[in-house]
């Protein structure tokens, strides 16, 4: 544990040191890569007056889309994974959309839903639901076969088999999908803000800063997005380890 904490501290320090040297030694012009000291100073002094509102907007878009998409994905995934007939019917369609970057559907969403909040929330919900659904399907289909056979030997009803065997066995896969998708949904939320204007999120703010060459603020926003993704992933890992204590058995 102490070694792990050591690396958690050492890696960011090394990254910041390399960034500092690149900037201070002018290996890249400082106008393009401002010093980390300048970026962090700007972030701490201007987060509340300038960046708090776009951060809150992006968090709302991200978490709302993730929660709604996760609920839809788990529900559909349990149904499809439980029935071989339903899975065989939808298998080609699932594989098609899994191979398709979700963000490419954003222009279609704009055509039907207009410019603004609606197409962004749709694309976050869609991408979240798709990947959570796929993990849920495989969790149900390829759960602990021995436990399912034992349940049938014990003559459990389908309802008991689902609640006591299939669902617990599939939860590690479901949580793995949720952990991956919480970062993916943030990426999709920010990308949708960058592609479709009309909202005041962090993605739109990055584009505005790029146009006027306000790169110090742009790097500050990139740090905010990275930290949001990092801490959400860590929190999810902690929750998963507490709730799914039987995984691997």
Q: Radius of gyration from the CA trace?
A: 22 Å
The percentage helix is: over 70%
Overall pLDDT confidence: 88
Number of strands: 0
Assign the CATH architecture of the largest domain. Orthogonal Bundle
Give the biggest sheet.
Answer: none
Uncertain residue segments? none
Number of domains: 2
CATH homologous superfamily annotation of the largest domain: MetI-like
Distance between the termini: 23 Å
Highest-level CATH class of the largest domain: Mainly Alpha
CATH topology name of the largest domain, in short, is: MetI-like fold
* Structure classification: mainly alpha
Tally of alpha and pi helices: 9
Our estimate of the beta-strand percent is: under 5%
Q: Could you give the order of the helices and strands?
A: HHHHHHHHH
The coarse silhouette is globular
Core attributes:
249 residues, mainly alpha, MetI-like fold, 2 domains, 9 helices
């Amino acid at each position: 544990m102490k070694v792990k904490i050591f690396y958690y501290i050492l890696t960011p320090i090394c990254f910041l040191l390399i960034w500092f040297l690149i900037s201070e030694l002018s290996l890249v012009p400082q106008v393009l890569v401002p010093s980390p000291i300048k970026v962090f100073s700007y972030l701490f002094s201007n987060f509340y007056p300038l960046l708090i509102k776009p951060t809150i907007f992006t968090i709302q878009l991200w978490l709302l889309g993730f929660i709604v998409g996760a609920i839809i994905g788990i529900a559909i995934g349990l149904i499809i994974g439980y029935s071989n007939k339903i899975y065989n019917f939808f298998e080609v369609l699932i594989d098609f959309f899994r191979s398709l970057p979700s963000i490419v559907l954003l222009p279609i969403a704009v055509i039907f839903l207009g410019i603004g909040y609606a197409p962004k929330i749709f694309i976050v919900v869609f991408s979240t639901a798709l990947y959570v659904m796929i993990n849920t399907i495989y969790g149900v289909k390829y759960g602990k076969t021995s436990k399912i056979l034992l349940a049938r030997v014990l003559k459990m009803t389908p309802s008991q088999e689902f609640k006591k065997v299939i669902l617990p066995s599939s939860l590690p896969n479901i949580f793995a999908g949720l952990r991956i998708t919480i970062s993916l949904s943030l990426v999709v939320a920010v990308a949708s803000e960058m592609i479709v204007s009309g909202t005041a999120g962090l993605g739109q703010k990055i584009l505005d800063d790029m146009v006027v060459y306000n790169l110090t603020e742009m790097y500050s926003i990139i740090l905010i997005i990275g930290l949001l993704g990092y801490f959400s992933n860590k929190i999810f890992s902690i929750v998963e380890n507490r709730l799914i204590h039987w995984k691997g058995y």
